[in-house]
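Late entry, evening session. Most of the bench is empty. Finally got around to the prediction I had been postponing all week. Sequence below, unchanged from the version circulated by S.P.
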Amino acid sequence: MTGRDYYVYMLSSGPNGTLYVGVTNDLMRRVGEHKSKTVLGFTSKYGVDRLLWFEVHGDVEAAIGREKQIKAWKRDWKIALFSELNPGWDDLFPELAKGIW
């Protein structure tokens, strides 16, 4: 363990929209990049920038493994992962930015 946290996260383009799963060592920075579209790619092309869900890992290999696992899931399974905690597909980023999480 490196003492650093790693985050697996899921974004959406909106309620019932396109989903994206990623991994990062800085969730605030990375979601901010998605929102500002500073990194060109899938999320900027399809407007995927709403933080739906995330989990924390203390090991980079575990986080990458979990990301790959979730990416291989069917859409319904991904939705089930966050829907109990976030049934409205709300963007968690504003609360995260305020330090609520």
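Two things to note before I forget:
The chain has one domain: 6-97.
The mean pLDDT is 94.
Will write this up properly tomorrow.
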